[in-house]
Design goal:
single chain, mainly alpha, Rossmann fold, two-stranded parallel ribbon, 5 helices, 6% strand
């Protein structure tokens, strides 16, 4: 699975399912997060990422179909790297023209 797809999937779990971390003490939450993130490559944002982000933002805002800020970043990064995004929130990512969206199995 491409790194961006993994990033989207992990971001979704961390943001949309905070109960996985919330009931635990802060030190345990931090340890859990480090464990999850250790398996993922770090993808640096570039100037091109910023241009893609701005282009997507403008297009979605003018069409009245704006999506979440973090979804914009993931989408811009995926487009820049020509990667697919694996997500259970296909409705949001499908708004980004040219982005390949797949549903995890």
């Amino acid at each position: 699975m491409p790194a961006v797809a993994l990033l989207a999937l992990v971001s979704s779990v961390l943001v949309e399912h905070p109960k996985l971390f919330a009931p635990r003490p802060a030190a345990m939450q931090a340890a859990n997060l480090r464990t999850v993130l250790a398996a993922l490559p770090i993808i640096a944002s570039t100037e091109q990422t910023a241009y893609e982000h701005a282009r997507i933002w403008a297009a979605l805002e003018s069409s009245g179909k704006m999506i979440g800020f973090y979804d914009l970043i993931v989408g811009a990064t995926a487009l820049e790297r020509d990667s697919d995004v694996a997500t259970f929130n296909k409705r949001h990512f499908a708004q980004i023209k040219g982005l390949k969206v797949i549903k995890p199995q």
